Amino acid sequence: MPSPVVLETTGDAAYDDGPFHGVTPWVHNMPEGDSIVGAARRVSAAIEGKVMTRIEIRQRAGSHRAGTRVKRVEAHGKHLLIRFDDGTTLRTHLRMNGRWDTYPPEARWRRPAHRARVVLEADDGFTAVCFDAPEVELLRDRRDEAERLGHLGPDLCRPDADLDEMVRRFGHLDPATQLGVALLDQRIACGVGNVYKSEICFACRINPFTPIARIDITQRAELAATAARLLRANLGTGRRVTYANGYAVYRRARRPCPRCGTVVKMRRQGEPARNTYWCPECQPTLPDASTWPG
Question: What is the average pLDDT across 206-220?
Answer without folding.
Answer: 97
